[in-house]
Write a structure and sequence with these properties.
This protein is α/β, with parallel strands linked by helices and 500 residues long. 47% of the residues lie in helices and 11% in strands.
Length: 500
């Protein structure tokens, strides 16, 4: 192989892959994005890059940002290559690459977040977007209300000029903008949360109210928080992914691999303007809720259907889970009999068609999305993705056996030991608590459901609780695969009713 080309502005003309055709030195910032992970760079940054390739949106470039010390490593990698990223698209039959250049800087990460606050206070910044994970919005998992007692937020309310969280930094920047006579920016969540814009508004306004009620009222009345639905599978980057860039002659320390699918549906509520992302494939819609319900319930909840079983059985990736006969049969049946009945069609797609699409996407062997990554933070993902489906099924008097098995397998996984005896390393912010309860639930399954911060009153829903206890006992006594087979091929009791 010829000598590798280190990715930078100076070497773009040497590359043989698609690359920025615009003058990056002429770009000016219009967006701050907090949480510059693989998903953001494969999704939102790519949509903006496509507009820039058409000679548009050159005043909307992205300033990357982070609020945690571990973000500094990504900042260092990206600054060393002028904030360029190689995106490698992995189709089952083809691999292609392009370099994306819509991010032009990455803000310094400091205690108190002064550089971030200063950047967001600049009126040139008209959108502050974020991908901070589903559990990062300080929402009580049962009530869905604002968790103002969290120590992070208590700190930010007491120290509003030197906050520790992204939301405290947003409040501080909006305070400076109001004092200077500037209007607010749009705050845009790009996380997998139902009503993510509404949740972001709740967090920002409620936090502001803790230190400055007048500011909170100004934000609530003038800032906008559009809901959005985002979708693109972008696995974590490891040695295999880094090596893929070298196949194209590129040395990239922060390469991103992704599938050949992207979807972005956004509520058109931007108080300070926006790029025309719809010109490059995004959808502006007044009914984001329908799109996000379909995606969150079939894709995101579907990930949890697969990942916990995969972890227990030592199946390393989502594609391998789909190739495992018992896990795939379980996934297919739960989707069609217990998840699809809670999902309405959207323009151009029925729930059945979307399930078929997801099955194809998950089965792509080139996308090495690990079960560990997908199973991470189950305490947020089960409460956010799976349990709302379960509640709807119970309310309609429909089957919950498969969903009960999903929860039982999560409980079994949290015991931290696979069936081959290997250890499942901690994989949740409250892992120790979950593991302790999971071990107690081996003898008394009801103890798992007694976690009120996760299940609320679901422990009192007899059809679910009885099924859960039965499935967890079976998973421990006869193994995970025996439970999967019993559900997919067993008695009518295990099948449940799908009418209604």
């Amino acid at each position: 192989m010829d000598e590798l080309i280190s990715l930078s502005d100076a070497t773009l003309d040497q590359l043989t892959v698609e690359r920025p055709r615009y003058d990056r030195k002429s770009l000016t910032p219009g967006i701050v994005h907090i949480g510059v992970g693989n998903f953001h760079r494969a999704h939102q940054a790519w949509f903006l890059h496509r507009l820039m390739q058409e000679g548009k949106a050159h005043d909307w470039a992205i300033l990357g940002a982070g609020v945690r010390p571990y973000d500094a490593a990504m900042r260092e990698k990206l600054l060393a290559q002028d904030c360029l990223t190689t995106l490698i698209q992995l189709d089952p039959g083809n691999v292609s690459a392009e370099v994306v250049g819509s991010m032009i800087d990455y803000l310094p990460i400091e205690d108190g977040n002064a550089p971030l606050i200063r950047a967001m206070a600049d009126p040139a910044i008209r959108i502050v977007a974020m991908t901070v994970t589903e559990s990062g919005y300080y929402v009580d998992p049962v009530s869905k209300g604002f968790d103002g007692n969290h120590p992070d937020l208590v700190h930010d309310a007491a120290h509003p000029d030197t906050p520790s969280t992204a939301f405290g930094a947003i409040v501080a920047a909006l305070r400076l903008r109001r004092a200077a006579g500037h209007g607010p920016f749009t705050a845009l969540s790009c996380d997998n949360l139902q009503g993510n814009g509404d949740i972001l508004r709740q967090t920002v306004v409620s936090l502001a109210h803790m230190s400055d009620p007048d500011l909170a009222d100004w934000i609530d009345a003038n800032a906008t928080f559009p809901n959005s639905m985002v979708d693109c599978i972008a696995p974590a980057t490891g040695p295999t992914e880094l090596a893929l860039a070298t196949d194209f002659g590129i040395r990239d320390a922060a390469v991103v691999t992704h599938e050949a699918f992207r979807q972005w549906v956004i509520e058109d509520a931007f108080c300070a303007g926006r790029p025309n992302w719809n010109e490059v494939g995004a959808t502006f819609s007044d009914d984001v809720h329908a799109f996000e319900t379909m995606k969150i319930r079939i894709l995101n909840a579907g990930h949890q259907v697969l990942a916990n079983a995969g972890e227990i059985l030592g199946v390393e990736s989502i594609a391998q889970c789909m190739a495992h006969p018992a896990i795939r049969a379980f996934f297919s049946k739960v989707q069609r009999t217990e998840i699809a009945p809670t999902v309405a069609p959207v323009p151009g797609k029925t729930p059945a068609e979307y399930i078929a699409l997801i099955e194809d996407r998950f089965a792509n062997p080139r996308i090495v999305d690990t079960t560990r990554r997908v199973a991470f933070d189950g305490s947020a993902r089960h409460t956010g993705f799976v349990l709302p489906i379960l509640r709807d099924q119970l309310a309609a008097g429909r089957a919950v056996e498969g969903l009960a098995l999903v929860e039982a397998l999560w409980a079994r996984m949290c015991a931290g030991i696979r069936e081959d005896g290997s250890v499942i390393e901690p994989n949740d912010p409250i892992w120790i608590e979950l593991a302790n309860v999971a071990h107690a639930a081996k003898a008394d399954p009801a103890k798992w459901l007694a976690q009120s911060r996760i299940y609320g009153d679901l422990q009192d829903a007899k059809p679910f609780a009885d099924a859960f206890c039965r499935w967890l006992a079976l998973a421990w006594d006869q193994g995970c695969e025996a439970a999967l087979v019993e559900y997919t091929q067993g008695s009518d009791r295990a099948v449940g009713s799908v009418s209604g």
